[in-house]
Amino acid sequence: MAQPQIPRQAWEDTASQAERLISEQSRDNSKLEVVRNQLAEQRDQAYKLATYKDVEVRALEAQLTALGPAPAEGGSEPEVIATRRESLEQALAVASGPIYYAEGAYERANLLIGEIDTQIRENTVSQWLSQSPTPLLPSRWQLAAGEFLGYSRQITAQFTTFFDDPEAKRQWLQGLPLFIAMILAASAFLARLQPWAFDRIDLKVEQTPSKSRALMLRLLATGLKLLFPALGTLGLTLGFQGFLPELASVRTLAAVLPAMLLYIVLSDWLGLLLFRPTAPSQRIIAVADTIAKKGKRTCLMLGGFLGLIILIGALKKDYDFSTASIAVLTLLAIICGSLLLWRLATLLSQAAPGKTEQEATGTAGKGVLATLTLLMKISSILSVVFVSIGYDNLARQAIIPMVMSMGLLAFAIVVYFGLLNLLSHIFADQEEAKQGLLSVFLVTLISLALAPLLALIWGARTTDIAEVWRLLSDGVAIGDARLSLNVVLTLLIVLFVGILLTRWLQYVLRHSVLPKTKVDIGARTALVTGTGYIGVTLAAIIAVSAAGLNLASLAVVAGALSVGIGFGLQTIVSNFVSGIILLIERPIKEGDWIEVSGYSGFVKKIAVRSTRIETFDLHDVVIPNSDLIAGTVKNMTLHSFHGRLIANVGVAYGSDLSLVKTILLQAAEEHPMVLSSPEPAVLFMEMADSALLFELRCYIRDIRQVFVVRSDLLFTLYETLTARGITIPFPQRDIHIKGLDESLRPTSPPDHSVNNKRDSQL
Fold first, then answer.
1. pLDDT tens-digit profile of 525-584?
2. Residue 3 lies in a domain
3. Of the residues 419, 440, 472, which one is the last residue of a structural domain?
4. Same-domain status, 458 and 509
5. What is the DSSP letter of 752?
6. Residue 530, domain extent
7. What is the pTM of this model?
C-alpha cells in the first residue's frame, strides 16, 4: 500500500490563517473555532502520516538492521558493508521525507491549536467580565416595561396579520381543537394520572416480599417515572407548538420550548427519586416527610428557573430588547434562582444521615454534603451581587452551572444507588457489597463518566474535551509499553469482569455445589478461598494480556522490588505463604479446636495473612499464619472429634477398692458421650497423704464437650460414692501456735502513784 499524498498547500493555508488571527488577537470566537477545527483535522492527518511507514521504508529499515549496528566512532567495517550501509541510509532519508514533513506539520498544528485555545479562553473571560447597565435604577425598570409592552404589541400585530390571511386562519382553526385536546390531555396526565400511577407502583414495591421482584419493580418504577413525564411533556410541546402560529416574534420561543420543558421534567424526576415524598423507605436523602415534599417542589422550581433563563435568551433573539431591559429580566430570574438554590441548600443541611448513607458514604459523605451546601449558598449570594452591579454574564456563570451541577450530582447519586442495589443483589451480600470495594469502583466509574459533562457545564468547550481525550488516547510511553486511556479501561474492565465472575463462582460453590458433597466445612472453605485466589490471579493475567501491556521491561523493577520485599516485607510475605500452605495442606481448618502460642480456642477464619480463633471466653485472637506453620500447634479435632477424658477421684483409706472401680466404670459406661471402644479404664495412681487417688480414663465422641462430660461424670461419681458409703476425704491439719499460753496470762496493773502525786502538787 502506497503512502497517502500530503496536502501541503491546504496545511500551509490553514496554518497561515491561524497565525494571522493569533497575531491580530481576534475577538471573534466563531472564526477562531472554525480555524481550530480545521487545524485539529489536519493535525490528526499529520499524526497518521507521521506514524505510517510504507513498504519501502520498512524494507530499507529491515535491510539496515540485517547489516548490524554501525561501527563505533573511530571504528571500521568492510568496504562492501560500509558502501551498502551508506546507500541504504540515503535511500531511507529520501523515502522518509514525507514522514519528517508530517512530523513538522503535526508539531506546528499542535502549537497553533494551543495558542488559539488560549485566545478563545481570554475572549470568554472578557465576555464574562463585560459590564452591562445596572438594573437597580428605576429608569431601567420603566424602560424594560415599555419594551415588553412593545413586544406584546408586535406579537398582537403579527397575530392580526396572520388572521387576515383566510387560508392560514382556516388551517389554524382546523387544527386548534386537536392542539387544545393535546394540551388538556397532557395536563391531566401529568396532574392526575401520573401521581396515581406512581403511588400504586410505590405501594406495590413496598408490599412485595421477594427481593428480586422488588428490585425489578423498583427499576421499572424509576424508568416509568421518567417516561411518563416525558410523554406528558411531549404532548404539551406538540400542543403548544401547534397552537402557536408561525410568527416571527415567537419563532425562537417555539424552538426552545422543548428544552425549557425538558429541564422542568428532568428536575422533577430527579427531585422525585432523591426525596421520595410518598415512599420514605426508598428515599435516598434521609429527611422528614415535610422536608421531602419541599425538596421535590424546590427541584421542580429550579428546573423552571433554568427554563426562564432559556426564555430570556429567546426573547433577546425574537425582539430587539435593550441591554438594560435584558439586565432587568436577568435580575428577576437570578433572584428567583438564588432564593431557590438557598432553600435547597437549607433543606439538604437538615438531612439526617440515614442507614444507607452511613453505609455508603459515612463521615466523608457528611463532609461533602456540608461543602456542597456551603458552595450553593455562596453561589446564590454572589450571583445576586454580580447581577446587581451590572455583571449579568458573570452572575449567570455563578448560578447556572451550580444549579446544573447539582442536577448532575443528583443524577449520579441515583445511578450509583441503582447500580449498587443491582450488583449487591447479584452478589447476594448487600452489606459486603456496600462496604467493600464495589462502592469505590462505582463512584470512580460514575465520576469518570460524568466528568466531561461537569466540565462542559462550567464553561469548557467540546474541543477542550476532545483535546483531553486525544492526550489520554495517545497515552504515555513507559519503557516498551504505552499507557493510554484505552489500555487502562481495557485493563480495569477485564479485571472487574474477571473478579465478578470469580465471586459468582465462589458463591455457586459455597451455596450450591459443595453443600451437596461430603466434603467437610474446612475443605469447603479452602476450596472457595483457593478458587478466589486463582480467579483473581487469572483475571489479572488476562487483563494485562488483553490490554497489550508488555511487562518484560519491568523485570529490573520486579527484581529490585523482590529484594525490597525480602528485607522489608519478609514477615508479611512469610505470613502470606504460610496462609497458602494452610489452605493447601490443611493442618487446621475452620471449626477446629487448637492450642497455639498459649491460646486455646476454635478456628473461626483462615485468611491470607492471619488466622482468627475464638477462645472459650469469647475473645477473638488473631494469630499470624507463620506461627501456625513454624510453631507447635495442638489440634484436638484434626482427624476426628474423638478425644480422651481424665477424671481424678480420691477416696478415703479403708474404702472398698473393687467397689470404687466398679462405680467409676459404671458411671463412664452409662454416659451417652463416652465411647465403648476403646473401653473406659480405672487406674490406681497413688496412695497420697489423705486419700487413695484414682483416674477414670475414657474416650468421648466430641472432645469439644470435654468440660461438660467431665462435669457430668463428677456429679454422678460424687452422688454414687456418697450413697454407697464411700468417703471422699479432704486434707485436715492441726495448727499449734508457740507461745500462745504465755501471751494469754494476765499482766500486773500499772502504777499510777507517781501521776497521782504530780496531780496533787498541781
1. 777 877 887 888 888 888 888 777 665 555 555 665 666 666 666 777 777 777 777 777
2. no
3. 472
4. no
5. -
6. 475-552
7. 0.62
